[in-house]
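Give me the fold.
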Amino acid sequence: MKLSNAFLFTFFLSCCLIINEVSAHDPIFSPGPHVLFKDGIELHTEFTQAAQGNKKQKQQTLAFKYGLSGDWVVGVKLPYQTSENSVETKQGIGDISVSTKYRFWRKDSLAVQESAAVIAKVKLNTGKEQVSSDTTDALLGLSYGFESLTWYRWASVRYRFNQNRDLDNQATLQRADRLFVDIAGGYRLSVNDYRDIDTVWLLELNGEYAQANRFNNADLANTGGSQWFISPGVMWTLRNFAIKAGVQIPVYSNLKGAQADSDYRALLEFEWHM
């Protein structure tokens, strides 16, 4: 009986420790509800590349996050962007963005954690003219997550409010808002020791919707529409280090006018929690 009780206690303690570690996991192409511990710091860098017809975009991003409490985190991102097509190449420091996430609900049970968070982000008009949208845009969203020793699942919805842009102080370009819907799942093949590399395989479904942009209150051709992506990926973690890699593959496209369909979007990210 004593051996059985000791085993159960050890199992329960191990589950709690593992859940504390796996709670650091979020999807690759969509936000999860994970937040840092109080006074925790996250440094990460990410590399993205996308192709759409004759257009290619690359971006390198540095990011910093800080845990104001065990349920509230704030962050800042600084991107360096390169955009090229068959005619020209533009590159430079992009717009800085500041963000916050507040986890308003959490439920823990044996080896399982569920949580939900509200997300807010503001993209500032700080980048070089070549790569900046010359606007200040805002985003609001909700995220839900379920995490166990083996299975993960996430869902999120985000709405981006795009600011209008004044062109030559004569006419206004009304940039359409965008809606993002995401569903994701993850699977851990085996539960490893804390000192070993942990691997989680992920699969996401990412949807994007936008109305047409407007100019002088008239819809602009070749703007707006919807896209859906299937996004396989993998996440490796070792203690407080993490590597994420994934690719978005278009499976449905209903872009308006003569817009080229997306070919792919790829991401590689390195995280360090302190």
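The chain has a mean pLDDT of 88.
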